[in-house]
Every structure is written in structure tokens, then in C-alpha cells.
Design goal:
By secondary structure, this protein is mainly alpha-helical. The chain has 17 helices and no strands. The radius of gyration is 28 Å and the shape is globular.
Length: about 350
């Protein structure tokens, strides 16, 4: 009888132990499942926010996803894009290098690394530039090797060969070679590539022909419209240029570079309006909108420079009190000696006008 009771007691303990194990395992499984759901939701939110240009929210959720898996190539890639768009080029480089370490067969990882390195060209010393160019070319050429029909990769190299000085590797011969490849991949992109080459050679008539052909084939492409606006501005057709640049804000960006082009366009509208005294209401609206930009890029004017142009527009409009107030606001904590001189000169001019009217 005693043995039977002992056996029954052991059986009951075994059952209870198994229940505890099962309960803990089930609880752990549920926790893992819930955590996985949270991470997946963060990824979905991060990508959606990125596509909607909310880079702060996107970064926040990508970092949540990264905390669960430090070897997620996609997360490193997107964090690199966000860092690039926010002007944090060295941080972007770190993310893309990590993405490449995780997947060295991705053309996009190398392409974006090349883009990020090119963003640093204006921020390093002349002695560092040569090394930076070598690294850029290695990344850009690897992007082409991995995906020979990549339009973006060929366009990235063409942009470099067209714009870089020959001492750093710039070459119109190489640019034309890539333009031929681009033409085979995409007709509109081919016309635009040839237009860029003609523009660099100061053959503005031929450049305009090619760029307008690109715009005609793909009128919604921000990049082609922006290029046309630049050409019109270069050839001093400012009214036409303003119309093109202001129209870009109504178009849909298809990649991060076109998002930057939208802000560059607003910057150009404000700059041309302030300089020429034309389309002042449009210029004022463009700069006001530009001051709320959510990207950073060396090509974009500083906030202080944009406000200086806005003050100039106020002056053109006869809003001298607003101009003086804004100029004094910019002058506080202004570190650029060149801009300081321009502001003080403008203030003296406005004071003179005020004295004459008084």
C-alpha cells in the first residue's frame, strides 16, 4: 500500500513538473511570438514612414528592428539611406559597409556606398579627396559588375565622369561610354545623359534639345525637369526656369534623389526670385516651404542663406520692416563672415531708404 501511494505521489509530481515546463515553454513561445510581431510591425512602420518622407519615425523603428537582429542587411541599408538624406555621410557609410559585409552580392549596397562617398567630396581636404575618389570608383564599378544592366549604377558613374575634374578621374570619354549603355537601357535616360555631356561641354543648344527629349518622353520625372530648369537658369532665362522649378513641387518623387531635387528646386525658385526681382510671391512661398525641409545635402543652401533671400524678396515687395527684422534675426550667431558682410550691407541700404523716407 505504501509503495502504491509513493508511486502515485511521484506520478502526480511528474505530471505537475511537466505542466510547469509546458506552461513556461508556452509562455516563452508567446513572448517570442509577440516580440517577433513587434519587430515585424516596426519594420512595416519604418518602411512606410521612409516612403512618406518621415525619416525621424522611420529611423526610430528601424533601430527597434536592429536591436532584435544586428545582422539584418535590409535594416542597415535603410538606415544608411536615412543617414545620407539627413547629411550624415560618415554614419551612412558605416551602415552601408555593414550591409555589404552581410551581403557582398547586392549591387544596391555598393551603389549607395558610392553615393554616400560622393557626398563627402566637398567636406574633406584636397589630400583626402584622391583616396575618397578611389573608394568611390571601386564601389561604383562594383555596383555595375554585380548588375550590368543597372541604370542607376551607370548613371552614378556618368555623373562622376561628367562633373569631376580630370585630375581626379573625370573623363568625357568615359562619360560617353556610359551614356551609350544608358541609352540602350532607357531611351529617356539616354537623352538626359547626352544632355549632361553637352551641358558640361557648354554646348547649351544641343544640351537643351536632349534634355527636352527626355522630358517629353517622361514628363513626370523630377530629375529631367530639374536638369531643364538648371539649363534655363544657366542661359539666363529666369522666368522659364522659375516656372519649371516651381512645377517640380507638384510631381511625385520616385527615389530619394528626386526628393532632394524637390528641395533644390524650391531653393532655386527663391534664389532666382530674390536675384531677379521676378515672381516675388512665388519666391516667398518657395522659401517659406524650403525652411521646413527634412533633408540635408551640401548642394542645399543653409537656412541663414535662404532667410537672407527671403529678406531680399521682402525688400523687393516694399516690406522693409519685415526685411530689417529678418536680417537682424539672421545676424545673431551668424558665423559666415561673407554672409555677415552681405547682411550688414543690406541693413545699411534699408536704413538709408528709411532715412530718405523719414
Amino acid at each position: 500500500m505504501f509503495k502504491q501511494l509513493r508511486s502515485l505521489s511521484l506520478s502526480l509530481r511528474s505530471i505537475q513538473f511537466k505542466r510547469n515546463i509546458f506552461s513556461k515553454t508556452l509562455g516563452f513561445t508567446l513572448i517570442i511570438s509577440l516580440y517577433t510581431d513587434v519587430v515585424m510591425a516596426s519594420m512595416d512602420t519604418a518602411i512606410s514612414a521612409y516612403q512618406n518622407n518621415d525619416y525621424v519615425l522611420s529611423k526610430e523603428h528601424f533601430l527597434i528592428a536592429l536591436s532584435s537582429n544586428a545582422n539584418n542587411e535590409q535594416v542597415h541599408h535603410y538606415l544608411g539611406r536615412i543617414a545620407y538624406l539627413q547629411g550624415e555621410f560618415e554614419q551612412a557609410e558605416t551602415y552601408f559597409m555593414r550591409a555589404i559585409a552581410l551581403n557582398a552580392k547586392s549591387s544596391k549596397n555598393f551603389y549607395w556606398l558610392a553615393v554616400t562617398l560622393s557626398g563627402q567630396f566637398t567636406t574633406v581636404s584636397i589630400f583626402s579627396t584622391f583616396s575618397l575618389v578611389d573608394r568611390f570608383l571601386n564601389a561604383a564599378q562594383q555596383a555595375v559588375i554585380l548588375e550590368q544592366n543597372s541604370l542607376l549604377a551607370h548613371e552614378g558613374l556618368l555623373k562622376f565622369y561628367v562633373s569631376a575634374p580630370s585630375i581626379l578621374g573625370g573623363s568625357l570619354k568615359q562619360a560617353k561610354k556610359h551614356a551609350m549603355i544608358i541609352s540602350k537601357l532607357d531611351e529617356a535616360a539616354g537623352h538626359y545623359a547626352l544632355g549632361r555631356i553637352h551641358y558640361q561641354e557648354k554646348e547649351f543648344k544641343q544640351a537643351e534639345q536632349q534634355i527636352r527629349l527626355a522630358v517629353a518622353l517622361k514628363p513626370q520625372r523630377i530629375r529631367y525637369n530639374y536638369g531643364l530648369g538648371l539649363l534655363l537658369s544657366t542661359t539666363e532665362r529666369y522666368i522659364e526656369a522659375i516656372d519649371i522649378f516651381s512645377g517640380i513641387a507638384k510631381l511625385q518623387a520616385i527615389d530619394p534623389f528626386e526628393r532632394i531635387n524637390i528641395w533644390l528646386s524650391m531653393d532655386k525658385v527663391g534664389s532666382i526670385s530674390a536675384q531677379s526681382g521676378e515672381k516675388l510671391t512665388l519666391g516667398e512661398k518657395a522659401i517659406t516651404h524650403y525652411l521646413h525641409r527634412n533633408v540635408s545635402n551640401p548642394k542645399l543652401s543653409t537656412t541663414a542663406r535662404a532667410k537672407f533671400r527671403l529678406a531680399t524678396i521682402y525688400q523687393h515687395q516694399g516690406k522693409n520692416e519685415q526685411a530689417v527684422q529678418l536680417l537682424n534675426e539672421i545676424l545673431v550667431n551668424q558665423h559666415s563672415n561673407e554672409l555677415k558682410k552681405s547682411i550688414k550691407k543690406q541693413l545699411r541700404k534699408l536704413e538709408s531708404i528709411s532715412d530718405d523716407n523719414g
